[in-house]
Design a protein that fits this description.
Helices cover 29% and strands 19% of the residues. It is of the alpha/beta class. It is globular. The structure holds beta-D-galactopyranuronic acid.
Length: 420
């Protein structure tokens, strides 16, 4: 029998070889030559020239591709959806906003899942547009507000946020206020709706919990090859939040926002549900806004290796074979057209490939053009901190992988022009 130390060595070597195989490239001269898959030619070679043809032929087949081979298909519908107002208060955010906390319950196959929506709405207008976005560690982390409920769902440990034993406590309250410019949103007439993503699907390679488990047939333990990974589950959660929000008379429009892995989820939610009036992708990178075929920074093989639960298993066929992808992420962005879309990068976030995010937005602009909407008209990356804000918007800000006040200031001013 092999000794445990040899087994450990063998496993470590296997893991290292997978990582060296998918070593990130940060050298622009080593980006492979590739053809950008055409938005206006169907998989069987038909040319598209009008928005109606895009909607009837090309858009559905691209949507199907991302569903079957990237994020994964949702295996059915819920049996029941319900919600309950847990509490509300009129004096939140220095007296400028109303707070509501709503529990949403999803039921399927006699199993159920609950998540809590935290809402801040500006006072003084009968209904307001809101930004809807997941947070990484619990609703109580986005604000110091002592009334915000602490999640009891599984939470990734984080020393800086004082989260240990995979449980959030009072100690992490307000620890992520830097990523959520709530008062700026309220002052500009926008509300915020946020959810802890771990309540919808815990972010670990374990398919026994979260949303997936609700949909299993007798004896099933993980999704089928073309079925959903966690990103598609988080996107589904956003659509369920929308089921509530569209019936809340205090809300006029919903713009979804997401950072990083949650930016990937926001893009997929926006592509699959046109009730979202707009989409904001903050540093979403590989499997989000960045072109996979550039193989710059994080690659398909690397992301599937590090996060095997994020995508459909079918996506693994492209590990190290990006040239074989029949579609790329600019086509995901185009699925959101003609609705407003903002793609943002950070100059030090090379892992997410800012240039690949920009180019995807540039190529997607073709479809915005079909609808007479303005997108990005040059393939030259704009200067740092010089946003281009059309219906399709882009900025690259100084600094690293994060959400900063600068980002929110841009999103708010852009959204004000489009949604207020
Ligand atoms: C990284 C991952 C990225 C991005 C990021 C995040 O480790 O490689 O794709 O999603 O996590 O979500 O912060």
């Amino acid at each position: 029998m092999m000794k445990p130390v040899f087994i450990l060595l063998a496993v470590t070597c296997m893991m290292q070889s997978a990582f060296t195989q998918f070593e990130p490239n940060y050298d622009e001269s080593k980006v492979p030559q590739f053809e950008v898959p055409d938005l206006l030619t169907t998989f069987n070679g038909e040319k598209i020239t009008k928005a109606e043809q895009w909607e009837d032929k090309r858009r559905p087949e691209l949507l199907r591709f991302f569903e079957e081979e990237v994020y994964g298909r949702v295996p059915g519908n819920l049996d029941a959806f319900s919600f309950k107002l847990l509490e509300q208060d009129d004096s939140a955010v220095n007296g400028k906003a109303r707070r509501k906390q709503v529990a949403i319950t999803l039921e399927k196959n006699k199993r159920s899942l609950n998540f809590n929506l935290l809402l801040y709405l500006p006072k003084g207008s009968p209904s307001a547009p809101v930004f809807l976005g997941y947070n990484f560690h619990g609703n109580h982390t986005v604000t110091h507000d002592p009334k915000v409920l602490i999640t009891d769902a599984w939470n990734e440990n984080n020393e800086a946020l004082e989260i240990s034993n995979n449980k959030a406590t009072e100690a992490s309250r307000g620890k992520r206020t830097n990523r959520w410019a709530i008062e700026k949103m309220i002052d500009a007439g926008f509300g915020l709706a946020t959810i802890y993503y771990g309540e919808v699907d815990p972010d670990k390679n374990d398919f026994t919990d979260g949303l997936h488990a609700l949909f299993y047939k007798e004896g099933q333990e993980r999704p089928e090859t073309n079925e959903w990974g966690s990103i598609a589950a988080w996107a589904f959660g956003l659509r369920c939040a929308m089921d509530y929000l569209e019936n809340d008379g205090d809300i006029s429009k919903v713009v979804i926002f997401g950072h990083s892995r949650l930016g990937k989820a926001a893009l997929w939610a926006g592509a699959t549900d046109n009730r979202f009036a707009g989409v904001i992708s903050n540093d979403s990178g590989c499997g989000g806004a960045a072109l996979s075929k550039r193989q710059f920074g994080e690659t398909v093989g690397r992301i599937n290796h590090s996060f095997p639960h994020w995508f459909a298993d079918a996506f693994e066929q492209y590990n190290g074979k990006e040239e074989q992808l029949p579609a790329d992420q600019h086509q995901l962005l185009a699925l959101i057209a003609p609705r407003p879309l903002y793609v943002a990068s950070a100059v030090e976030d090379q892992w997410a490939d800012p240039k690949g995010e920009f180019l995807a937005a540039y190529y997607a602009s073709t479809i915005y053009g079909l609808y007479g909407k303005a997108g990005i008209t040059t393939d030259e990356l704009p200067a740092v901190d010089r946003p281009i804000q059309n219906t399709l918007a882009y900025h690259i800000r100084s600094g690293g992988h994060d959400v900063m006040d600068y980002d929110w200031e841009q999103y708010i001013s852009w959204a004000k022009k489009l949604f207020n």
